[in-house]
Amino acid sequence: MAGFFSRLKEGLSKTRNNIVHGIDSVFSGFSSIDDDFYEELEEILIMGDIGVNATNSILEKLRGQVKENHIKEPAECKKFLIENIKDQMKVEETAYEFEHRQSVVLVIGVNGVGKTTSVGKLAGLLKAQGKKVLIAAADTYRAAACEQLTEWANRAGVDIITGAQGADPSSVVYDAVNAAKARHVDVLICDTAGRLHNKKNLMEELKKMNRIIDREFPGVHRENLIVLDGATGQNALNQAREFGETANLTGIILTKMDGTSKGGIAVAIQSELNIPVKYIGVGEKLDDLQKFDAEEFVNALFEIEDQTL
């Protein structure tokens, strides 16, 4: 994982410039801890897409710690601030149950967030664990989605079920579910449409897929992962909320974290939605999708090499 840690650190460089350098300048620029000091920190955290609610919680806790520990020097706050950011990212449930049971994983999200590539990379990750994986290309509306996914399936070395372009996406899911049962597949990963004529249609399509899986594969473990583009900041949060109204979201795949200054959104997402970020993408290669670890993420952001502060 050391290789991934260094890639994560490298991938977060723009976010680091945006958040960490700002924080450091506050710690070095203030000689005392006063309201202006907290205001500056608040601005940096919010501008870094950590979100208003998470920022308020982080700073409220920091104020208490400063009082309790009789801290006078701003620099002494830093370790508390980092720990508070980590605490904000704690969610109750981060289990990867679908790795251990026969499962159907629906991968959802709007077009352009890296959904298709995430399906391919996730398939590769599970195949590397010795799992028998099948992909369903149920994004039948987007031109080239099927070809792209077929290419990823070949790269990952897994089978794929496709339908004609413009076909009913649920019919592809139906075929794939039955193929998964017949072939004793460990994990079926379904790519879904990211855009239909309107949002209502898209949500109805997801409900229909869920009904088919419930009917055709009762008792199978279910996972609904939403793919969010880290570079879109607060928009990603709104997308998760919208999809969450239709699908029971069990986890998040956060993509395009390399090259964005809005990496703080990972903190906001876990803090505000209480849905775990399960995977993070920091590049284009098959192994550039890895399990997300909040502790490791914050350590990489603040360039803390060893796991102790």
Tally the beta strands: 8
What is the CATH C-level name of the domain at 97-249? Alpha Beta
- Annotated CATH topology of the domain at 97-249: Rossmann fold
Count the helices. How many?
13
Strand order of the largest sheet: 3-2-4-1-5-6-7-8
What is the residue-averaged pLDDT?
88
Structural class: alpha/beta
Radius of gyration equals: 21 Å
Q: Please state the overall shape, judged from the principal axes of the Cα atoms.
A: elongated
Description:
With 309 residues, this protein is α/β, with parallel strands linked by helices. The longest helix is centred in the last third of the chain and has 18 residues, at 199-216. It is built from 13 helices and eight strands. The chain has helices at 2-11, 13-18, 20-29, 35-47, 52-68, 78-88, 115-128, 145-156, 169-182, 199-216, 234-244, 265-273, 294-301; strands at 103-108, 133-138, 159-161, 187-192, 221-229, 251-255, 277-281, 289-291. The chain has an eight-stranded mixed sheet with strand order 3-2-4-1-5-6-7-8, sandwiched between helices. The model has no long low-confidence stretch (mean pLDDT 88). Helices cover 50% and strands 14% of the residues. A hairpin with a 7-residue loop joins strand 7 (277-281) and strand 8. The protein has a domain at 97-249: Rossmann fold (3-Layer(aba) Sandwich).
Short synopsis of the structure:
The protein has a domain of 153 residues: P-loop containing nucleotide triphosphate hydrolases (Rossmann fold), CATH 3.40.50. Helices cover 50% and strands 14% of the residues.
